[in-house]
Every structure is written in structure tokens, then in C-alpha cells.
Design brief:
The chain is of the alpha+beta class. It has one domain. The chain has seven helices and seven strands. Strand 3 and strand 4 form a beta hairpin. It is globular and about 50 Å long.
Length: 175
């Protein structure tokens, strides 16, 4: 069986959302070699879910849960079918506080994990201005953040990519 493809999270193994594991999926009761490495927002505490049960929606349905908060996408005016795909059939991601799935051009963006320092150094112009405004960061503070930034650190800066226009969108989270 081929590894599932996720339109809005194209490489969940490299982002750390899916990890190798011999654990048994609590949805399908199979050990498929991989499990989800983040949270399913559900009334039940679910520890192990395989990517196949995420991709086909069976985990979200069985446990009446979501892998990401739908509110940011609703607020951005993203179509309901896209919100459903992101929140019910796409691996979420780990963040310090709570993930905020990004939207652009009227749709959900692809999640590409922690930004690389090189990505942030190259951020300039309107893109940098938009990021600083959205995150309420003063330019002088940005220089300090950038100087001390490390991928996977605190603060965390996450990279998204718009599937419509290919613009990179960044969001920040910290403890």
C-alpha cells in the first residue's frame, strides 16, 4: 500500500508530523510502520493513528475529532470542503501554543514545517512587512529574532506555501 498523499501537508515525515513506528493504529487496528506524531483534538485521548486513517478521514470520523483548528480557515473564508480536508484528512503540526493553519488566495496553504534560517534571511519587501505586521514584531526585534533563530527552536517560525500563487507564508509561535 502506497504512503498516502496529503495536498496541504506534502511531506509529513520530514516535518515530523508522521514518524516511523511499530505501534498499532487505534482506528484500523493495524501496525503499518508509521503513526501520527501530533494531536487529534477529540474527547477521547488517542495515542496512535496511522497516516492512512488520517487520509481517508476514518480517524476524524471514528473519534469525532480534528487534526487542526478550523477557526483560522473559517475566518479566512476558505471553502468548507478545503477546511474539511485540512482539519479531518490532513496531519496537523506541533506548535508551542496552538497551530494556526495559514490561508492565502482564498484557500488553505501547504504546510512545509519549520522555516530554515536561510528562508527567513531571504524574506524581504512586502512579504517581510506582512509577516512582521501579522506577528506584531518591530523591525529591530526581528533582527534579534533572526540572529538567534534556529529551526525547531523557540520562537518557532513555520513555513507555508500558497498552492495558488506559490508565495511563502510564515507564522510564528513561542512559549
Amino acid at each position: 500500500m502506497d504512503f498516502p498523499k496529503f495536498k496541504y501537508h506534502p511531506d509529513p515525515i520530514s516535518t515530523g508530523a508522521i514518524k516511523n513506528s511499530d505501534e498499532i493504529c487505534e482506528c484500523c487496528n493495524e501496525a503499518r510502520g508509521y503513526v501520527y506524531n501530533s494531536i487529534l483534538y477529540s474527547a477521547e485521548e488517542i495515542e496512535f493513528i496511522c497516516p492512512w486513517c488520517i487520509a481517508d478521514g476514518s480517524a476524524a470520523e471514528k473519534f469525532d475529532g480534528m487534526f487542526s483548528d478550523n477557526h483560522p480557515l473559517i475566518e479566512a473564508g476558505v471553502p468548507e470542503e478545503v477546511i474539511s480536508e485540512v482539519c479531518e484528512r490532513t496531519p496537523g503540526y506541533n506548535s508551542w501554543q496552538q497551530e494556526v493553519w495559514q490561508a492565502h488566495c482564498g484557500t488553505a496553504c501547504e504546510f512545509h514545517g519549520d522555516a530554515k534560517k536561510k528562508d527567513l534571511i531571504e524574506l524581504n519587501g512586502d512579504s517581510l512587512e506582512s509577516f512582521l505586521k501579522a506577528e506584531m514584531i518591530k523591525p529591530d526585534n526581528w533582527k534579534n529574532i533572526l540572529e538567534h533563530y534556529s529551526k525547531g527552536g523557540n520562537p518557532a517560525i513555520y513555513k507555508f506555501k500558497c498552492p495558488e500563487c506559490s508565495e511563502n507564508i510564515y507564522t510564528m509561535d513561542f512559549t
